[in-house]
Amino acid sequence: MIQDPDLFLRFGISLVIGFLIGLQREFASGETDNELALGIRTFTLLGFLGCGAAFIADLLNSPWPFVSIVFILGIFLAVNYYLEASRGNTGLTTEVSALLTLIIGAAAYRHYLTAAIAMGVTVTVLLSTKLQLHRFVRRITRTDVFATLKFAVISAIVLPILPNQNFGPPPFNIFNPFQIWLLVVFISGISFVGYILIKSIGARRGIGLTGFLGGLASSTAVTLSFTQRSKTNAALSRSFALAILIAWTVMFARVIIEVAVVNPELLRLIWIPMVAAIIAGLVYCLYLYRRRQPDHEKEEVSFSNPFELGPAIQFGLLFAVILFVAKVAQVYLGDTGLYLSSIASGLADVDAITLSVAQLSKSGLNGVELPVAARAIVLAAVSNTFIKGGLVICMGEKELRKAILPGYLLMMGVSVVVVMLV
């Protein structure tokens, strides 16, 4: 007899996962009077069945009980699909979900509890976002599809064969082709998340939401777009200022994510000034939100697919150049040189300098101490915010400048003051 104190926990998790998936399926069907072949009770039992089938297979030390149950379930699902198809319902989503629920239940029994929970949540989310996914598919273009496929193919084929070692004469042996392209994929992926959300939800859902989603894709694009629109829509200047400041705030959050992925040690120092800037931005955004004009019209911002191969290669080259410049400045001018190169690089792109400095300070291999790296990254973020604020002040409508200036100065001032304490 198997003595297992967490056996009930595993069966309980399989039941909960089946219940969640079944709840979504029954809610999505919209049927209240007719009996569903695969409803909330059936899915709950399927999760329990998967766990029980794996349990029996373990007791008998044979996979055949589990295989037999899967085969029998497959027959029932095939019959159900035939009956549904005869009524004109040809979708396979519910049947596939049923099989997945059984498998997730088995995974829960095999002690893969975290994986089982993650799979269950993922399945439920995918089933619940049907409308958003279909809306996204309708909104993407043929160019988007080919750009993404080209980027994926190049990354899948090229990345594994790139040498994962440093090149260059000491002390400039800092160029690792594999890591450089891996970081390009990472940054493009963050931007792609924002791009997908904009395509799925739509940028016309509201100016503030566009600022948030645009901050994931490109805070510079949000800044330029709404600054130009303020010339023809001065009445919406406060709303435009809100969107721009939200995008800048999201940019600081992007920096935290990038540092956390590349150099977790550096995160201990960088999160304080970054979070301080985020809080300052959110406080002023709340103030603007309370005083802004109602969005009588929805504004659209144009974003390009971040998986375009050309811009990705350009970012990779920019990252390599900034990595080299930062190292040269640090070798010949010390910490001051690194600060100056960070400020200059931040004027063009905060992602590239953030990744470069985080890489140079990783485990102290390249002589850049963590406090120095933290200050350099904050200066780059402030420099990037400074140039975008300059664009608003030089190009924006008077009301936009008045609305954004206090928040602009607050975010930069808080970041600089806090970083001096690092």
Quick description:
The chain is an all-alpha fold and 422 residues long. It is built from 16 helices and no strands.
Task: Report on the architecture of this protein.
- This protein is mainly α and 422 residues long.
- It folds into two domains: 7-128, no CATH class; 141-419, no CATH class.
- The protein contains 16 helices and no strands.
- The chain has helices at residues 7-29, 40-60, 64-86, 93-109, 113-128, 130-139, 142-161, 177-201, 207-217, 219-229, 237-262, 264-291, 309-346, 350-360, 370-395, 398-419.
- Helix 12 (264-291) packs parallel to helix 15 (370-395) and helix 12 (264-291) runs antiparallel to helix 16.
Strand content: under 5%
**Helix content range of the residues, please?**
over 70%
Class per helix and strand makeup: mainly alpha
Rg calc: 26 Å
Low-confidence stretches: none
DSSP helical segment count: 16
Shape: globular
Alpha-carbon distance between the two ends: 59 Å
Report the sheet with the most strands, covering strand number, pairing sense and barrel closure. none
Nearest-integer average pLDDT: 80
N to C succession of SSEs: HHHHHHHHHHHHHHHH
How many DSSP-defined strands?
0
Layout of secondary structure:
Blueprint: H1 7-29, H2 40-60, H3 64-86, H4 93-109, H5 113-128, H6 130-139, H7 142-161, H8 177-201, H9 207-217, H10 219-229, H11 237-262, H12 264-291, H13 309-346, H14 350-360, H15 370-395, H16 398-419
Helix pairs in contact: 1-2, 1-4, 1-5, 2-3, 2-4, 3-4, 4-5, 6-8, 7-8, 8-9, 8-13, 9-10, 9-11, 10-11, 10-15, 11-12, 11-14, 11-16, 12-15, 12-16, 13-14, 13-15, 14-15, 15-16
